[in-house]
Specification:
Length: 981
């Protein structure tokens, strides 16, 4: 294992310190043992004992000098310098030379003192933290000098009467064995040291990152308590300040810029907020969407928390003003602020994800103050302002209604008092201000005019701040006066709902009126049809519509189910509150019931206009049949080839995943160029393509050759169950299967095909996604854009310049209408073109409208929410102006023949004479039919060329000119129908 580049300096320093420590220890051992071994001199060689002792006396002080030198160097911090030199200078070389001298004096090769060299080798190799190469060089020098001594003292001759050769070989044999064993040990110990060093530093880094992350989440004091005790006790703080900020017009800004740019802007702004509150010693609590919350006086209490929070709020407003100036004012980033002071309870909630939060009426009031504030202002209660009026200027707002609190006296903080400001905007304090805060100088407070009584206030809908939709909703209560609306608002509660949330069940006894503020809901009833229960959507309600008024009037259970179509908000008005208001003010009851009667009468007229009965299919793309993905056949009923293909697919994907992980890791560790990584990915992609192609072919064969549809569905369900974990790693497959918009082929799914940017989970996800996005069906979706664009431009060329009116194009089930944008991009002058896009999906229309704004084509588009299934029915849209072209690229392959003919009839009637209809449908020869039916759960009605032409001949186009075209993949069929009168 190698030491990472960024850790090599630290590892070298640690190795040097370990070398010095080992040198000091070995010198100490040599200082004791080398003289002690002198006993052997008198036992083995008494005749030369004096010479041997002399050698020991000369060498032993060197070891002592080495110990003292290490102590001095360590104290002065120089011990790491030339660390490799010290052990050789004070230990290895003196000891080896001393052993050589002892061997020479005691008789050469027959002397047992050569074992001393073994001790030196063992000591060095076991104790010194050197690399194997350095260790090998060191021990090789020791061994080499012994060989030289042997040759000088005991020359090897051919005299067979001597044992010199035998002694020479045996001594060196044992020494070489010792050297090899020591080197192996040195190699192993070095790897262990490297592993331990790297692991230790990685652990330390992770610990530092964890602590840094914890300190980003929690205040320092709270984090310390959590680490020490494993929990944080909630604490009451009698005096602190809570601040809420919120961007004004954030929804409009988010519609004007791409999501990535929006996130970057928020990150930049909130990072600036972080720096501002850090300078003022405040504590960030959390961000919620575009809202930012912080506090002063917690967790560490202080006496200036309110002043600090107001100063930080003024600086935030200044920061945003400069940000708008630097951005040329293109985006109007403005913030409103609510500040309140009082007692709170603070603590850490949660275990999996820690969050430091605060609770109490102070927090709720601060949030209400923010909602009631205006852009560029700091809203506080009048009571709070009086405590800082000697430092700041303000503007009295009088009494304003606050949910759950009635009327509350409020004031705006407009800036610092002139004598305390160092800038013209009066947002930054001077030294005099700080002196006034520190010395608590009492300055005459700003006079706030007497607050008028609630009855004398000017009552208007703008009192409700952001709830403009709520104001419009109450506007439908035509007989309620303004005071009635205020009372309703004070007794109601705003609630959010999500897509597919059930707001009311059919037959439920509800206790509140629901007023829609944002979003749309569907009204659904249970009906019986052909001895089967079914749920039918009878209405779609939007902002301003009321829910539950009939149950309130009749005191009966609800007659329908209400389900959210998209995320939104509603106002919940309890029946109990309405009863109390009518008890205290009988006139309110009269006005309320007159308003409800008018609303129900309007709804009755609308319903009558939609007769005959409302039995509809709201969205063409919704699967109207029983799912084919959950069927199961006996295990022995599956074709052997299909079962084998499934197993090959699973084993192959597992093998690709493992190989990808292993090889990619190896390539990255070796830091190979990107070209080699790309080549490896191409090989992995090719392997995945082969596996998917093989499985798709076998599934297609099995379903086409099935004895009936039940068996085909069983084969498809079996294949999906077995391969689900692999295919769902693909982003495209996951979205197609899960249908987050409620139906297959929504605009976002089609956008994924257009973008053709493979993504997914893990290593296999992007590879499978690439295979899906490059199947013939996906290529056909991309290619049909050009086919339709060419058709639109052909008609436009015929349109010419002689006409004074507009060239009109209409898209049915438009989605994002990319074909129209392609057409506009290829036109030299598009000012005379008007495009109408019909779709039931509001999100798709919003996305297209955003694109039009980005392309500068807002005036050329009309985005209309309309269920194209209703075209040709009495409740369909009002007939548009005659169109030059009406086209549909992805709608008719979801329609039964009768509905398709109904829409064709409407289409022809909507065309100008010589107008053109372009209608597309997937061909029955599509090679991905089994894949779409059983893996993607994207079921279409496939048609042959004859069936497509037959549809037109059975419609109002029967006598018109019909032309059949195909895109390059032969997957999509298109009929170009020219109206002739």
């Amino acid at each position: 294992m190698r030491v990472p580049e960024d850790l090599r300096a630290a590892f070298a320093e640690e190795t040097a310190q370990r070398t010095v420590n080992a040198t000091q220890i070995l010198c100490a051992l040599a200082l004791v043992l080398f003289p002690l071994f002198g006993i052997l001199d008198f036992i083995l060689y008494p005749h030369v004992a004096n010479d041997l002792v002399f050698v020991r006396v000369v060498v032993t002080p060197i070891f002592l000098i080495g110990i003292l030198t290490m102590v001095v160097l360590r104290r002065r911090g120089w011990s790491g310098t030339y660390a490799f030199v010290w052990p050789n200078l004070f230990l290895v070389i003196p000891a080896a030379l001393a052993i050589d001298a002892l061997i020479y004096i005691s008789g050469g090769g027959t002397s047992p003192y050569y074992c001393g060299l073994s001790l030196i080798i063992i000591g060095v190799q076991v104790s010194m933290p050197w690399r194997p190469l350095g260790m090998g060089l060191n021990t090789a020098v020791i061994w080499l000098q012994y060989l030289i001594i042997m040759m000088l003292v005991d020359p090897i001759t051919y005299d067979t009467t001597r044992d010199g050769w035998r002694i020479f070989v045996s001594n060196n044999y044992f020494l070489s064995a010792m050297v090899v064993i020591g080197l192996v040990w040195a190699f192993i110990s070095h790897r262990l040291r490297v592993n331990e060093f790297v692991s230790r530093h990685e652990l330390q880094r992770e610990k530092e990152r964890s602590e840094e992350l914890l300190l980003n989440i929690l205040p320092v004091e709270v984090a310390d308590e959590l680490k020490a005790h494993g929990r944080v006790e909630a604490r009451n703080h009698p005096h602190c300040t809570i601040v809420f900020t919120d961007f004004v017009g954030f929804t409009q800004i988010s519609n004007e810029i791409p999501a990535a740019e929006l996130v970057r802007a928020l990150d930049h702004l909130f990072a600036g907020f972080d720096q501002i509150i850090a300078r003022h010693g405040l504590e960030k609590l959390k961000t919620i969407g575009d809202s930012y919350m912080f506090a002063g006086g917690i967790p560490v209490e202080n006496n200036t928390h309110l002043v600090d929070c107001v100063l930080a709020s003024l600086e935030i407003i200044e920061f945003l003003d400069k940000y708008r100036e630097e951005g040329d004012g293109k985006l109007n980033w403005r913030v409103r602020v609510g500040v309140n002071t009082g007692p709170v309870t603070a603590g850490v909630i949660g275990r999996a994800r820690f969050a430091y939060d605060v609770w109490g009426d102070t927090v709720n009031t601060a949030a209400r103050l923010e909602a009631s504030s205006d852009a560029g202002f700091i809203n506080v209660t009048t009571e709070t302002f009086r405590s800082i009026g000697h430092l700041f200027t303000g503007k009295d707002r009088g009494y304003l209604p606050v949910k759950g609190k009635g009327l509350l006296a409020m004031s705006f903080v407009t800036g610092l008092r002139p004598e305390f400001a160092r800038d013209e905007a009066r947002r930054f304090p001077n030294e005099k201000f700080r002196e006034a805060v520190i010395t608590r100088q009492l300055i005459q407070p700003v006079k706030i005019s007497a607050v008028a009584t609630p009855v004398e206030q000017s009552l208007s809908e703008q009192w409700f701040g952001k709830e403009t939709a709520m104001g419009d909703g109450f506007g439908r209560f035509k007989h309620l006066d303004e005071q009635d609306k205020i009372e309703l608002r004070l007794h109601s509660e705003e609630r959010a709902f999500g897509s597919h949330d059930v707001l009311i069940e059919q037959g439920q006894h509800i206790e509140s009126l629901l007023l829609l503020l944002e979003g749309h809901v569907r009204v659904q009833v249970d009906v019986s049809k052909d001895d089967r229960d079914a749920r039918i959507d009878v209405s779609i309600l939007g902002p301003g519509d009321l829910i539950g008024e009939m149950s309130f009037v009749t005191d009966e259970a609800t007659s329908a189910r209400v389900i959210g179509i998209e995320a939104g908000k509603l106002l919940e008005i309890p029946y109990r509150a309405l009863d109390e208001l009518m008890t205290h003010d009988p006139g309110f009851g009269v006005r309320l019931f007159r308003s409800l009667a008018g609303l129900m009468a309007t709804r009755l007229r609308n319903t009558n206009s939609k007769l005959p009965p409302l039995i509809v299919e709201e969205v063409a793309q919704v699967n109207r049949f029983h799912s084919t993905l959950t069927g199961r056949l006996p295990d022995d009923s599956y074709p052997e080839e299909l079962a084998e293909a499934v197993e090959i697919f699973k084993d192959g994907m597992l093998d690709v995943d493992r190989t990808y992980a292993r090889e990619a890791g190896r390539l990255m560790r070796r830091k190979l160029p990107e070209s080699e990584l790309a080549e490896f990915r191409e090989r992995a992609q090719a392997r995945v393509n082969d596996l998917c192609d093989y499985l798709n072919q076998k599934l297609t064969d099995a379903t086409q050759n099935a004895i009936d549809k039940g068996h085909a569905d069983g084969y498809g369900a079996y294949t999906l169950r077995e391969t689900f974990s692999s295919f769902m790693k693909s982003r495209f497959c996951d979205r197609s299967f899960s249908k987050p918009r409620g139906y297959a082929g929504d605009y976002a799914t089609i956008e994924l095909i257009y973008q053709n940017e493979p993504k997914g989970d893990g290593r296999l996800g992007p590879l499978i996604d690439s295979w899906l996005l490059n199947r013939p069906s996906s290529r056909a979706v991309r290619d049909r854009r050009k086919l339709i664009t060419d058709g639109l431009l052909e008609r436009f060329a015929e349109y010419g310049t002689g006409r004074d009116d507009m060239y009109r194009v209409m898209s049915l089930g438009s989605g994002s209408a990319r074909e129209l944008f392609d057409m506009f991009m290829r036109m030299k002058d598009s000012r005379a073109v008007r495009a109408t896009c019909l779709d039931i999906d509001m999100e798709a229309l919003a996305f297209g409208s955003h694109l039009a704004h980005e392309y500068g084509l807002t005036d050329q588009f009309l985005w209309t929410k309309e269920n194209v299934m209703h075209l040709g029915q009495p409740r369909g849209m009002t007939r548009p102006a005659p169109q030059d072209v009406v086209y549909s690229s992805g709608l008719f392959d979801y329609l039964r023949d009768d509905i398709a003919i109904q829409i064709l009839n409407w289409t022809r009637a909507a065309l100008e004479p010589e107008g053109l209809a372009i209608i597309g449908n997937f061909a029955d020869t599509c090679p991905d039919r089994a894949l779409m039916d059983y893996i993607l759960d994207w079921q279409l009605i496939y048609r042959t060329p004859d069936e497509m032409l037959d549809l037109f001949r059975r419609s109002a186009f029967r006598d018109d000119h019909l032309e059949l075209r195909k895109e390059p993949n032969d997957v999509n069929l298109y009929v170009f129908a020219r109206r002739k009168d």
